[in-house]
Design goal:
The chain has helices at 14-22, 24-48, 53-80, 92-98, 105-133, 137-161, 167-187. The protein is mostly helical and 195 residues long. It has one domain (14-83, 91-187): Ferritin (Up-down Bundle). α3 runs antiparallel to α6 (137-161) and α5 runs antiparallel to α6. The mean pLDDT is 96.
């Protein structure tokens, strides 16, 4: 893959990991919702761009893998006696990013793939923080597996974009979106949630 010069995401605040560790059951509920939403996002790209055959297999595989992650999170929840949220709430983080999608259909695809990469990279960053701070060894091991998967997904979405867009254009737009992501994540209240 092209050696991108990508802006780093702003590190999560200590207050965030403190909130997660203080109410891990609520975090698990949100994590489960996020995995379902991630699966839905991958499949919505399949539905929106059925003619982009070069990327469909990877998107379908990702949609299934995110559902597998949901299944694993739910198993942890069930073992702890934690139920699913009765209603999935809107993800203000993702909504804040999607507001910046270019209106041109082609550039819209570019932006959706880049936003997907950023969302996965944020997941990598936050799941890694959890794996390094949670006291339960099984949870630490689980979140290590999850963050390594998120890293692969982040790279994959950029690789998918390379099918249609110049690498320097991808890099420039990614870095623009990282600046926007910093504003979005800093605008959100600290909560025991992924975003």
């Amino acid at each position: 893959m092209f050696n991108y010069t990508l802006s780093e995401l702003t590190p999560s605040k200590k207050e965030w990991i403190d909130a997660v560790l203080h109410d891990f059951d609520s975090f698990l509920q949100d994590h489960a919702d996020c995995e379902r939403k991630a699966s839905g996002m991958a499949m919505s790209l399949v539905a929106k761009y059925p003619d982009r055959t070069e990327i469909l297999q990877d998107l379908i595989h990702t949609g299934i893998e995110e559902l597998e992650h949901f299944k694993l999170v739910y198993k942890i929840m069930a073992n702890r006696g934690v139920g699913l949220n009765k209603k999935m709430t809107k993800d203000l983080y993702v909504e804040g990013l999607l507001k910046h999608i270019n209106g041109d259909p082609t550039k819209g695809l570019r932006d959706r793939l880049i936003i997907a990469a950023i969302v996965e990279n944020r997941g990598f960053e936050r799941f890694k923080v959890i794996s390094e701070n949670v006291q339960d060894e099984e949870l630490a091991k689980f979140y290590k597996m999850i963050y390594l998967s998120e890293a692969k997904h982040g790279e994959m979405f950029l690789r998918l974009a390379e099918n249609y867009f110049d690498k320097l254009e991808i890099e420039q737009r990614y870095n623009e979106m990282v600046a926007i992501e910093t504003e979005v994540i800093n605008s959100l209240a600290i909560a025991p949630a992924l975003h």
